[in-house]
Design a protein that fits this description.
Layout lengths: L6 E6 L5 H13 L4 E7 L12 H6 L2 E4 L2 E2 L4 E2 L8 H5 L3 E7 L21 E7 L9 H15 L5 E4 L9 H18 L3 E7 L13 E5 L9
Parallel strand pairs: 1-6, 1-7, 2-3, 2-6, 7-8, 8-9, 9-10
Antiparallel strand pairs: 4-5
């Protein structure tokens, strides 16, 4: 069972696999017969948006919220007020898939009254293969910029170091080492190690964080 606070904010730099993690996380929660809502709050990056899998998610009972206007082919530069429903309704587990940098994270600022420590988690998805988050300094700067804009604190790290279907165990372990240094610096835990399913059994048993097998949902087989 994913024993995190009811509201989970998922952040991560572009290309980190943030949305892939958020969608997999939502689907895992839904298997526990819990009421789940996933809010696509990325109004900056037009690619690999969680609302692209709306039909798949809704088939599993997941409520999908986004800024997309049906029939218009475009997004609003703000997030639907529909997110207030699951924010206020404590029967819901709410996952917020947020834009990749401080500009994208500004959408969270309007809801800052809800960011009470202990009521939410904000997880930073880290892919050590992305230039912006390949060093401790880069990750710390990224986290600080998000926290300054949102008035929310990152409460946990997610090692999602990958090269899509070419990911190796060595990639994951290199990312884990980087996450451990950030964890020690900020005194926050590594919550999850997000890894493609075929590598799960090859990982050591003593890694910090819960291993979450990931299905490639956001990318087609040919990508």
């Amino acid at each position: 069972m994913l024993k995190d606070n009811r509201v989970r904010i998922i952040i991560g730099h572009y290309g980190s696999g943030k949305t892939e993690f958020a969608v997999n996380y939502a689907m895992n929660l839904s298997k526990e017969n819990q009421a789940v809502a996933l809010a696509d709050m990325d109004v900056v990056n037009p690619y690999f948006r969680s609302r692209e899998k709306q039909s798949l998610l809704e088939e599993q009972g997941i409520k999908v919220i986004s800024s997309y206007i049906k029939g218009s082919g475009s997004d609003l530069p703000s997030v639907s007020a529909d997110v207030l429903g699951p924010l206020q309704n404590k029967t819901y587990n709410l996952i917020l898939d947020v834009g990749g940098d401080s500009a994208g994270a500004r959408t969270l600022a309007r809801f800052k009254a809800y960011w009470v420590l202990g009521d939410y988690d904000m997880f930073c998805v880290i892919n050590a293969n992305r230039p912006e988050t390949s060093t401790v300094e880069g990750i710390l700067n990224h986290i600080a910029s998000i926290e300054n804009v949102t008035d929310a604190k990152v409460t946990g790290l997610i090692n999602n170091t990958h090269l899509l279907r070419h990911t190796t165990v060595e990639d994951v372990l290199r990312g884990q080492e980087l996450c451990e240094k950030v964890s020690e610096e900020l005194q926050i835990p590594i919550k999850y190690i997000s890894v493609i399913e075929k590598l799960v059994k090859e990982l050591p048993d003593d890694l910090a964080g819960e291993v979450m097998p990931i299905k490639m949902i956001m990318r087609e087989d040919w990508m």
